Amino acid sequence: MRPASYRDERLPRYTSYPTAPHFDAAIGPEDYGRWLAQLPGGLDASIYVHVPFCRSMCWYCGCHTTVALRGGPIADYLHALHDEIDLVAERAGRRLPVRHLHFGGGTPTILCPEQFTALMGRLHRAFDFAADAEIAIEIDPRRLDPAMITALAENGVNRASLGVQSFDPQVQKAINRVQSVEQTAGTVAGLRQAGIASISLDLIYGLPLQTVASCLDTVEQSLALSPDRISVFGYAHVPGFKKHQRRINEAQLPDGAARQEQAEAIAGRLVAAGYRRIGLDHFALPGDAMTRALDENRLHRNFQGYTTDACEVLIGLGASAIGRLPQGYVQNDTVLARYAQALAQRRPATAKGYRLSADDRLRAEVIERLMCDLDVDIGAICARHGAPRGLLDDSLLKLAPLAAEGLVTLQGSRIRLHDETRLMARKIASAFDSHLDQAARRFSPAV
Predict the structure, then answer these.
(1) Which residues lie below 8 Å from residue 86, measured CB to CB, with a gap of 6+?
(2) How far apart are CA 412 and CA 193, in angstroms?
C-alpha cells in the first residue's frame, strides 16, 4: 500500500455492519424480547459470554473491563449473568440449538473452577448444545492455574486463545503487561495435556517501543509454541475513549510507516513458516478449520474477528455484550450496576441496538465478503438481494482513484484486492459504508 494518506486513515474494523457507534437507544429491552420470541425454528445460534473483570489493567486494552481485586463483585456479576441466561431462554420460548460458545473479556478465567462449572451448567440447561459445538475461551496465561485448566477441559472447552501481544520486556513494561515466554509455554503445555488441543495466540503491533526486530522476535517465540492460529492486530490508541491508555507514552508509539513495516514483516514471517493468511489479520495452519472455510468461501466475520461461525443468531450475554439476530443488533448496558438492576427486574439489559434495513443487509454482505475473500462480485450480491445492479455504483466510483493507483482491481461489478494490498481491505470496505461519519477518533488507523 503506497499512499500514506490511506494508511493513516481511521476506519472501522468492520466486525459488524453497521458498526457499533451507530447503535442507539431507539432499540431497547422490549425490542430484544420481541425479536427473541420471533426467531424462526431451525436457526442455529452462537453465544458470546462477556466477563468484564481483570486483576490488573493492561494500558493498551480497548475492551470493556474493570479491575477486580476481590471476589465479591465477580460473584454478584455471575448472579446477574445466570439470570440473563434464564431470561433469554424464557423469551425465546425454547432451548435454542447452539453450535459456538465464546467466552471473552476482560479475563474469563478470573472465575474459579466452581464458578465456571456452575456457569456452564446454567448454559447447558438453557440451550441445546450440539455434540460438536466449538467452545472457546480467551486466556491470560499469567493467571491460569492447573485446577482451572482441568475445569475448562471437563466442561468441554476445545479452543483456547492466549493473549501474548509482545514478548519484548521493554514493550511489556510500557503497556503494563509483564508476561514471560515460560509462563505462556507452561499454559500451552497444560492446556494440551488436558486435551484442549486447539491453541490460538494474539499478537499486537504498533505498541510503544516496538520495532520490526522485536516484533519478529515475538513471532519466533510464538512459533516455537506451534499454535494452530495466530491473530495479529494493530494497536488502536484512543485515549479519549479509554482513559487508561493515557498512561502510554505517545512519543514511544511507532508512526504509520513503522506500523505498516511491522505488520508486513510479521505477515511475511508467518507465511514463510507455513501459515495461511486469513483476511486482514489472521493466520492459520493449512489443516485448520479456518483455512478450510477460507478455501470454501465459508469464512465469516463477527465481533471476535474472523470465524467459521455461520450462525444467523448470536446471543450476547453479560455487560456490554453485543448480540445479532435476523432483525438487527442489540447491546447490553456497559455499566455493571445498570446491567444487574435490569436483570433483577426481570427485563433484558439492552441499552441500545440497531434495526437492519434491506440496504444494510446488502452492504453488510458486500463488506463481509471483501474483508473475508478480498474478492466480491457486487452484481451477484445485488441479484441475491433483489436489488438493482446499479444500486452501489456510487460506492464503486469511490474506488476508481485506488484502482488507478493499482491498489485494487475493478472489472465491471467485481472488486479484487491483491495479496500485497490486502491491508487496504478496511479502506475498500469503507466505500460501501453509508453510515460512515466523521467520528474518526473512535476508530483505529487503517494499518
Answers:
(1) 122, 126
(2) 53
- What is residue 176's three-state secondary structure? coil
Q: Is the pTM of this model over 0.90?
A: yes
On whether the CB atoms of residues 224 and 188 are closer than 8 A, the answer is no
Length, in residues, of the chain: 447
Neighbours of 91 (CB within 10 A): 17
Query: Could you give the C-alpha distances from 299 to 79, 99, 177, 361, in angstroms and in order?
Result: 35, 15, 32, 17
- Over residues 188-208, the pLDDT tens digits come to 999 999 999 999 999 999 999
CA gap 168, 157 in Å, rounded: 30
User: Which 3-state string (H, E, C) describes 182-231?
Assistant: HHHHHHHHHHHHCCCCEEEEEEEECCCCCCHHHHHHHHHHHHCCCCCEEE
Are 408 and 417 within 8 A, CB to CB?
A: yes
C-alpha neighbours within 13 Å on the C-beta side of residue 429: 31
Q: Residue 263: which of 324, 307, 207, 330 has the closest Cα?
A: 207
CA-nearest of 17, 138, 118 to 75 is 118
User: Considering the chain, what is the average pLDDT of its residues?
Assistant: 94
User: Rounded to an integer, what distance in angstroms lies between the CA atom of residue 294 and that of residue 367?
Assistant: 16
pLDDT digits over 240-287, tens only?
889 999 999 999 999 999 999 999 999 999 999 999 999 999 999 999
